[in-house]
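Structure record:
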Amino acid sequence: MSMSVQPGQRAEVQYLLRLGDACLVLSHRISEWIGHSPVLEEDLALGNIALDLLGQARALLTRAGQLGEQPLDEDQLAYLREERHYLNPVLMELPRGDFAFTQARNLIAACWLLPLWTRLQASSDAEVAAIAAKAVKEVRYHQQHAAEWVVRLGDGSEESTRRMTAALAALWPYVNELFASDAVDAAAEASGLGPAWSSLKPDWDAAMDEVLAEARLARPKDTPHVYAGVRGVHSEHMGHLLSTMQSLQRAYPGGVW
């Protein structure tokens, strides 16, 4: 097995990789809480959320590998690509942060994934539609769980409110990338594979505003900058994340359990 792979450049493959990589990288970040959560129940809850996202990533990467210019399996795509070939939004790769940061990011991600998976149930690709039918049920729980914590911390003590406010402020500059459409989006929308990400914004706004209102938190101001993780331009944190996530496969190429 090659120590590095590059997936095909077809638009449909890129579209699936963007979503698959988003789920994969966010799953890894959430898994970093295992053994470190403030209460045992959250160890279990966050572990389950990470596993759900990992399952979604596996299914999407498998499908992307089948559609690419050269057949690649989920392990090759997850572990043997270079940093520039990962297409996840930068939001997903940011360091774990504190508990408020994690729950705020989980809410932002779930409010984005839920309308996306909902629409993907009608995908012209039957495999993708089947993946979406299962994923939408999982992400609905992820959204509810994160929303409960954002409200609990946002409308809690002075310290918890401060931390949640700071978390949202730190995350908000990365949100625009979740709704930035381009030629890949346009091709996916035209073929019926999936929706353009820009079309998800109204649903995301409504879901986020509802939670923030209940939490008595002000919505941070939008910023014009758009990050380019979906085009392979990542933050300084991505390389460190991959060095950990890929270490076993890089050390023992082709190793399986």
